Amino acid sequence: MFSDDPDTCFDTEKLLYDSAREILRHEDRQQYLRWLMENIGRYLDAPEDLEGNLQQGHFNALAVALGCSIWNAMPLPGNDFRPAPVPLPKRNTPCPCGSGRKYKQCCLTPHSDSVPELEPEALWAILLEVLPADMIDQAVAGGKIPLGSLCVLALNNLEEGRPKKAAALLDPFFNGNINRTGRDADEALSILIDCYEELNFHAKKQALLDNVTKNAKKSPLRASAWQRITAIRMDDDDQEGAWEAFHHARRDNPD
Q: Using CA atoms, how far apart are residues 151 and 166, in angstroms rounded to an integer?
């Protein structure tokens, strides 16, 4: 990732984790770019001769290209957990590295435009591991965390023996009308049902399934709810009701 040269690669995971920690320290783009320019070599895995060439003038260019991509996607607690993206520099604008020279005369390289554009959703999983607990609670309360990342957080709590906290993370998504479906919603339903079963909240589990089957549109999410109902009716020895629920599930999701 982050390189077109087959002989050059980065320890991308460590780069992203360390970048998140550094950005959270100050939430200052220029300070982050300076830090990355000083430390980019720590994440580079390259042959010695190539590394020597990079040290002669390309580290800053790599740091600027990578740093701009990471910064522009990073949700910032000081910006209501939203990124504060800055347009990529034009050829004649001052270079983001702070040299005072024009970008085209400084850190612009033929590969500057090839750095992939990151999405905030890709960084939330990392943020949830480095953010302080109070900031995570703040982000959850404000509904700032994407559902996929919220599922990861809830599953971690469930697996670590905190089913009540895990359920509290996902309950709000299913309150009222359910206007979003997809793989993340399907996973959220599955995790929340597992939480209720762990807590012996049988009435809440049934109410959740009823809510999804009545209010969600035709989707794999609604099919999953019908599948759960099928299993419940089978356990209750309700063969006819189980077949009925199964046919609903199959209509909602033939696969």
A: 9
